[in-house]
Amino acid sequence: MARSLRGAAAIVGVATAGLGEAPGWTSIELLGKAVQGALADAGLRLRDVDGLFTNTAVHPQPALSVGEYLGLRPAFSESSSIGGASFVAYALAAAAALQAGLCNVALICYGSNQRTALGKLQAKSGNQGYEAPYRPRHPITSYALATARHMHEYGTTREQLAEVAVAARSWARLNPDAFMRDPLSIDQVTAARLVSDPLTSRDCCLVTDGAGAVVMVRADRARDFPAPPAFFLGGGVAHWHMQVDQMEDLTVTAATESGRRAFGMAGLRPADVDVLQLYDAFTINPILALEDLGFCSKGEGGSFVAGGRIAPGGELPVNTNGGGLSCCHPGMYGIFTLIEAATQLRGMAGARQVAGAKVALCHGNGGRLASQATALLGTEC
């Protein structure tokens, strides 16, 4: 049954709105603007949408609030939250709903005005009983622990971590929509203000405003739309914990399962992937994802990214829009992996376009290395 979802659906419309700073806009207004853009991209109207897949950080029942704001009466909706991985997971759910005939036009959307409305990201431990007595600064503390363990276990260096941030910035400099486009060096990353040892401020994602929207339809309709489709080839979701202290190994994530499921459904291997969009909340994320998704062996992620391998001109393009480290990070980043992947597969990425890109991998991360969701998209089904 799962394998039958290969080629069942396709992305036919994408858009972003308010990336960086959007003063005066609410999160749902930004979401609505992105939705308008994605539907226009697909040549559709709001009344065509009958499947809604959404989440926000400010609405307790996001499907109801977003549906009401957009004036939708969907036949199918999904707003389960697994953090930033939710939107990559929604691509899998939307493909299943479309194939089953539960909806005909699926809309995946997100919006946040985190930067202009909320200011700096606030550190909260929340109701995490085992960790709270140690006064962690979540989510940074959790990722710092994973980073420190990877460095201890495998000899990963600060300079290798900095390579991730520098590569992201190099891609962002080719993207006019990226929030941070100034030059960035390895020395600047390692010498930046220490936030949570061993992570500096340049190892941490941005805090921005922004919204994104994705429109999906069944594959048999996909070529009837204005832009080239990005076909859904495979997907997988996995989560093992919530609190980072519940991880059996701080260097291994549930991407080992989500990736295996996605590749299995697609009938592909890492060697078949032309471009990767990885959730980079911190510089350790892409290193762990590259290992756990099978692009290199466990412990080799640091050396794998060295020497500009994932930067423009490198052999494996990663986060070609600049990622969460340099393009945008409005609270939850996952939807932007889908948008950039579709943009690359359409050949519409401008100066950052990866020549001949036919297969793209999107990977979402949620919570404290908790939820992992993987999707593979392609130019053909």
From TrEMBL:
Record-given protein name: Thiolase
Domain Thiolase C-terminal span(s) in chain numbering: 236-379
Pfam families in the record: Thiolase_C_1
SUPFAM superfamilies in UniProt: Thiolase-like (SSF53901)
Lineage of the species this protein comes from: Bacteria, Pseudomonadati, Pseudomonadota, Betaproteobacteria, Burkholderiales
InterPro entries: Thiolase (IPR002155), Thiolase-like (IPR016039), Thiolase_C_2 (IPR055140)
